[in-house]
Each structure stands twice: as structure tokens, then as C-alpha cells.
């Protein structure tokens, strides 16, 4: 696999772990906590487990990112040597990567400490999740430009609020009764709408900043990849609408949630490729 493919693959793993890392705290604070009289106790511990596994996954993915950086810089043969990794971790990229690791470890510790409904730990998990979204912009296309970093951080937070919370609920709800399941997805709708709105607004702003002209959409690899991503996001949104209608009618979620997550996975892969391409 060449270095660009390795970079994209490790980014896809990182983004896939990032979404439920942020989404689990949103699922607890903005969805489960809204259920009256109260969400089944098993819901809280299941959400916590998703958050803990996802945040630990971000830590592992960040280690893979550092290796992928060594692979891109020194080649595969030397990428595992302590000298190469030391050079990467003490470089400017490495010092920025440290903030990402710090936020990911803080998230993991907060989820570990959130048992028994400790709300302060859930808020700490939410805060360090957003801090992780900000820290990830330190090494991407936005790095060095505070305005672009702000838009990227809002984009990542919105995408996580939408698809990260959905992923958490999809993993948690099979083990609870049908009535609570419908109530959770109904409570999720406004969170999905807010997250999707933020992701789309920040995404469109970013697209406009990087494309510069409409015809760059079909004339450049970056533009064409972005178009594919937006089509996939539209597929996620259509599934979301169907799920919303079903939740509103008090019907079960069925396979449409699985289809929504499949398209979400394709959004992640297309994004990982997009962030590796040069801007027009
Ligand atoms: C479910 C919705 C979405 C998710 C989960 C998502 C996720 C992401 C992620 C993880 C990044 C990388 C950010 C970084 O590393 O700094 C990104 C970048 C980007 N996204 Fe999205 N996105 C979504 C929707 C959209 C939409 C609707 C658009 C366009 C209208 C869009 C356009 C972009 C652009 C232009 C970038 C910058 C890529 C670069 O670094 O050059 N995204 N997105």
C-alpha cells in the first residue's frame, strides 16, 4: 500500500473512532437524559461502554497516524525504527499530535469515571470530545489558519453530533425494550437535526474556501471526490428522514438505521481520501 493510501486508511480509522467518542456523551446528555421518567439503567452503562471503547480506539488510531506519518516521511522499511518515530514525534507535526493524544486520553479517563451517572464526568467527556475535534484541525489542511481551523472544528463537532450519536444509539438500543428504543430515537431527532445542520453549514463553507470556483467540482480530483462525499451525505440524510418519520410514528427503526450507518461509513472513507488530495 503506498504512503498516501496508508495515510488515508489511518485517517478513516481515526474519524470512525472520533464520531462515537463525541456521540456517546451527546447520547447520554442530550438524548437518554431527556427520557421521562428515566432511561433504563442498562442504557447508561451501554452508552458509557461505547464511549470508552471509541475513545480508546482514538488513542490507538492516533498511534497509527504517527506511524503513517513516519511511513510517508521515511518509507515503510524505516517507519518502525525508534529513530524515525522519535523524529516524527519531536517534529512540529508531532507537537501538534501531542494535543490530540492529550484530548483523547482525557476523553478515555472521563468515560472510565462516568459510571453511576456521575454527570461531571459525562460533561468532562463531552468537553474533551470537542477539544479533540479542535485538536484534530492542528494537523490537517486547516492547520495554521485560525478561521479555517474554527470551521473544521465546527464541522467535525456537527458530524459527530449527528452520526456519532446515531452510531451510539444503534449499538445501544438492540438490548433494550421496544418502547424505550422508540423514545430514544424520538429524543434523538432534534440532536440529529442540529448536528446535520452544523456539519452541512461548516462543510459548505469549507468547500467554498477550498474550491474557489464551481467548475473546480468536476475539473479536479478534489472537486470530484467532494461531490461523491456530498452525494453520500445526502443518502445518509434521506435515511435519517425515513428514520425520523418512523420514530415520530412510534414505529421501530428496522434496517434503515443500518443503511444510514453504511452510508456514514462511506462518508468517512471519502473524507479520508479528500483530506489527502491537493486543493485546486
Ligand atoms: C455527515 C456529515 C459529515 C461528516 C461526518 C464529515 C466529516 C468530515 C471530516 C472528519 C473531515 C476532516 C476534517 C479535518 O481533518 O480537519 C471533513 C472535512 C471536510 N468536509 Fe466533511 N463531513 C460531513 C459532511 C460534509 C458536507 C455536507 C460537506 C460539503 C458540503 C463537507 C465538506 C468537507 C470539506 C470541504 C472538508 C475539508 C477537506 C480538506 O481537508 O480539504 N463535509 N469532513
| Overall number of structural domains | 1
Helix content: over 70%
Distinct ligand kinds: protoporphyrin IX containing FE
Give the structural class.
mainly alpha
Number of helices: 10
| Largest beta-sheet characterization | none
Mean pLDDT: 92
Q: Helix and strand succession?
A: HHHHHHHHHH
Instruction: Give the C-alpha Rg.
Output: 19 Å
Distance between the termini: 25 Å
Cα shape: globular
Low-pLDDT stretches: none
Report strand %. under 5%
What is the number of beta strands? 0
Describe the structure.
With 280 residues, the chain is mostly helical. The chain has one domain (3-275). Helix content is 79%, strand content 0%. The chain is built from ten helices and no strands. The protein has helices at 3-31, 41-74, 82-89, 92-112, 119-136, 146-172, 178-211, 216-219, 221-248, 256-274. The longest helix is centred in the first third of the chain and has 34 residues, at 41-74. The chain is globular, with a radius of gyration of 19 Å. The model has no long low-confidence stretch (mean pLDDT 92). Protoporphyrin IX containing FE is lined by residues 15, 136-137, 140-142, 152, 155-156, 159, 162-163, 199-200, 203-204, 206-207, 210, 226, 229-230, 233, 236, 267, 271, 274-275. Protoporphyrin IX containing FE (HEM) binds next to helix 6, helix 7, helix 9 and helix 10.
Search tags:
79% helix, 10 helices, 280 residues, mainly alpha, globular, binds protoporphyrin IX containing FE
Q: What is the strand and helix layout of this fold?
A:
Layout: H1 3-31, H2 41-74, H3 82-89, H4 92-112, H5 119-136, H6 146-172, H7 178-211, H8 216-219, H9 221-248, H10 256-274
The chain binds protoporphyrin IX containing FE (HEM).
The site of protoporphyrin IX containing FE has 28 residues, from helix 6, helix 7, helix 9 and helix 10.
Amino acid at each position: 500500500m503506498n504512503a498516501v493510501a496508508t495515510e488515508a486508511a489511518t485517517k478513516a480509522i481515526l474519524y470512525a473512532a472520533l464520531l462515537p467518542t463525541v456521540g456517546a456523551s451527546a447520547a447520554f446528555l442530550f438524548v437518554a437524559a431527556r427520557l421521562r421518567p428515566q432511561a433504563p439503567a442498562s442504557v447508561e452503562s451501554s452508552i458509557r461502554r461505547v464511549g470508552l471503547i471509541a475513545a480508546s480506539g482514538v488513542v490507538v488510531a492516533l498511534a497509527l497516524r504517527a506511524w503513517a506519518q513516519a511511513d510517508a516521511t521515511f518509507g515503510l522499511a524505516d517507519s518502525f525504527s525508534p529513530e524515525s518515530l522519535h523524529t516524527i514525534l519531536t517534529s512540529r507535526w508531532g507537537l501538534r499530535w501531542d494535543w490530540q493524544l492529550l484530548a483523547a486520553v482525557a476523553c478515555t479517563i472521563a468515560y472510565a469515571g462516568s459510571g453511576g451517572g456521575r454527570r461531571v464526568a459525562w460533561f468532562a467527556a463531552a468537553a474533551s470530545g470537542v477539544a479533540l475535534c479542535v485538536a484534530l484541525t492542528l494537523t490537517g489542511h486547516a492547520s495554521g489558519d485560525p478561521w479555517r481551523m474554527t470551521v473544521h472544528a465546527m464541522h467535525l463537532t456537527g458530524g459527530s453530533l449527528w452520526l456519532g450519536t446515531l452510531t451510539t444509539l444503534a449499538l445501544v438500543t438492540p438490548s433494550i425494550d421496544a418502547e424505550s428504543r422508540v423514545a430514544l430515537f424520538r429524543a434523538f431527532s432534534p440532536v440529529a437535526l442540529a448536528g446535520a445542520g452544523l456539519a452541512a453549514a461548516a462543510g459548505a463553507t469549507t468547500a467554498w474556501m477550498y474550491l474557489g470556483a464551481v467548475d473546480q467540482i468536476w475539473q479536479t480530483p478534489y472537486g470530484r471526490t467532494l461531490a461523491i462525499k456530498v452525494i453520500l451525505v445526502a443518502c445518509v440524510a434521506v435515511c435519517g428522514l425515513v428514520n425520523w418519520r418512523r420514530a415520530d410514528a412510534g414505529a421501530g427503526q428496522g434496517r434503515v438505521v443500518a443503511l444510514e450507518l453504511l452510508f456514514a461509513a462511506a462518508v468517512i472513507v471519502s473524507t479520508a481520501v479528500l483530506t489527502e488530495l491537493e486543493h485546486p
